[in-house]
Amino acid sequence: MLQKELSWWQKTVVYQIYPRSFRDTTGNGIGDLKGIIEKLDYLKDLGVETVWFSPFFKSPQKDHGYDVSGFQEIDPIYGSMQDFDILLESMHERSMKIVLDLVLNHTSDQHPWFIESAFSRDNPKRDWYIWADGKKPNGKKPPNNWKALPGGPAWKYDENTEQWYYFHFLPFQPDLNYRNPKVKEEMFNTIRFWLDKGVDGFRLDILHSIYEDESLRDDEFSWHLLPSNKNVASLFRKHKYDLNLPETIDFSFELREVIDEYQPERFLVGEVFGSIEEMSKYYGPQNNGLNMCFLFEFMDSKPTVKVYKRVISRIEKALPYPYIPTFVYGNHDSIRYISRLNNNPQKAKLLATMQLTLRGVPFVYYGEEIGMRNVKFDLKTSEDPIGKKYSKFPLGTIVKLLNISVSRDGCRTPMQWNSEPNAGFSSNETVEPWLPVPESYEKINVEKENKNPSSLLNCYRRLLKVRKENKILSEGLFEFMNGDADKDYLSYRKYINDDEIYIYLNFSKKELLLNCPVESPDLYFSTLSNRVALDIEAYNGKIKLTPFEGIIFK
Ligand code: NOJ
Fold it and tell me: Any idea what the CATH number is for the domain that residue 492 is in?
């Protein structure tokens, strides 16, 4: 079978920006759209093709933008609609694509729709949200036993109308009722509003929780405490009636129809949780659903050859070509990945090489390219509403044992641009940014790493360049070369028809001598910036890899 040319979105690289933390031009300590525009050349020069922005829509900012009160408005904290238009145009001028973050599942409780809905039982917006009577005798118990994702009951009692409303995330984020066709229509119009402006795609927030069981049946017991990327069960509930319902999967097909009204092609990437096999349902039988889903498997996998081999094999099996997998190491909700590698830049370079050479679309979270570390904050001063929620509980030991971070502040600190005060994040050197700049900024920052050829930043830059220049890397099919017995390294080839390229990754502290599949290998890339060739003659026809070295050759 001859491989077809891939569409732009099937071979792109996406960079995620958390707007609050990227660059502040007004000097109030919070990042803004003008700041992003200022830094577009940095992104272009890095080799980024597509940028996804966490929400900058109108919002009370209780969940920093994931609580929207105006889906077609820009929050003044970040700028104006005019700033947005300039951002979009400036990105397109640089041949970059722009992806917005759509929170379809819920609104803020300050959204005019919810304010109206909560006003009385008989107002026209009542059934835009999910309201139910409490359990008898006096209705003061929640309608069922459903649990919210961050813990606690998923229902909040409204004294005014003496009913409960449902929320999957936090109480100030009431879930919309998609069984009401008006809600669907309104949200589809919002999608069209942004597409008409020229937006190239959407990231869909917790899409797997769009629909709930119509008759609100009680959930079943599960032994799982924490949610994982393999199973949606958590907090001792199966989440059988509130997550991944067949209606939600059908909804992803409808969303695809909306974006397919537009040319050139746009794309949807879904934040959905479950096993890889479950996620493949969202892609649709003919990839007529979401263009892609986030595959978070690498985020909670042990960084070993054995585990990675298993994960990659499962992904390749569940989503074979022409389906497009995604590779995510981190985002605004998770511990920064370099900190899961003991903050070791050598290992980060190796993993970056893997992420950017597997088959599919890599997602890079801002700051990953310079090795920004996760920061530990006291829950008492948490900005993150989840951290706030748990700040009164003595969680210290449990959190340590489970190696989790309750507050998400640690991965959302300001971008480290240079060694000046506030790391160059804010135009105001004396302002206190919304989250403190980590102490590491004097060593870890863009300006410093730019000057150092062997920095992580320059490694990402070289990787993105080699990926762009070699179609086999961004579009080729994938096949493992080494056997399951090899525990020290991963080797695989990418190929388009008869043309192939090889990737070798040494996950061990040892030097390795590995077989070379070609007579005179041509080195395209090494995590070692000063390696210029592969001298196989010196090693009996074998390739020598230094500890944690990754190479690409032909
Ligand atoms: C998932 C988002 O990634 C997270 O940041 C947000 O708090 C929740 N959804 C609620 O929208």
Answer: 2.60.40.1180
